[in-house]
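Incident log, structure service

09:12 report received: a user says their structure output differs between two submissions of the same chain.
09:20 pulled the input from the user's history:
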Amino acid sequence: MRDLSGKTAVITGGASGIGKAMAQAFGAEGMKLVIADVERAALDAAVAELQQGYEAIGVLCDVARHEQVEALAAAALDAFGAVHVVVNNAGVSITGPIAQLTLDDWRWVFDVNVWGVVNGIRVFTPLLTAQGEGHIVNTASEAGFLGIGYHAPYCASKWAVISMSLSLYSELEAACSGVGSSVVCPGFVDTKIHRAWRNRPEGDQPWSRRELDPDALARTDEFQGRGVPPEHVARLTVEAVRENRFWVFNTPHWRDLIRSARDQQISGENPPVNTWGPDLRPQAKSP
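09:34 re-ran on a clean worker, output below:
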């Protein structure tokens, strides 16, 4: 899709982080914007900011609920008449030992990261293929190529997004649909995904309330802040849509990362010990 001006982009998880940066990047190309998010205050603030320079609306939407994604599509069509770029970006993360994570931890991450993408693809793909034009972007992660200790739900969900995106690409190309697709696999990005627990469903039973500890949260804020700006990922994504390019990476080492993982699998080597955040290790109990 070389010509983006005047067309419409729908972006989930669009009130902050990579999603908001993508909204700004697509808006700078002259696109009309439909921003979806589950957090009302953040959504209203983001849309008010975007409306200073772009034509934008906001839709409160829990991507884990198919009927709400259907309502998102209806709102986009009602506002702008068509949809051309869909960015299934909403994502959350939980950290902790895999044996201690609760079923609610797993359900929450997979409901947003996996089912959110499934719902986005299922709702919007027929609209784009019917008009014979469009592009679907799914946000995964470099972590989807790895198995990182204390991040099992996130890594597993992002590999599911990569695999799903590969299947989608094959289907769209085989059908000569005129619809492109991309999967965004960012490395470490300066976002607030580590604060995503604020939007967990009521009644969830997380394995730990560690994230509510002010000292631990401050350390995580500082650590996460070392990531690349989300605007960098957004610029690369716009380029990929323009060039109809499937893979979107933002780090110089991504080839080495994937090659190393594949070489270990082919050779039958045991995987390396790979963990992030040693402060997440269970503490030994005093006698």
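09:41 both user submissions now match this output. Likely a transient worker issue. Closing.
09:42 reviewer note: DSSP finds nine helices and seven strands in the chain. Residues 190 and 223 are 9 Å apart (CA to CA).
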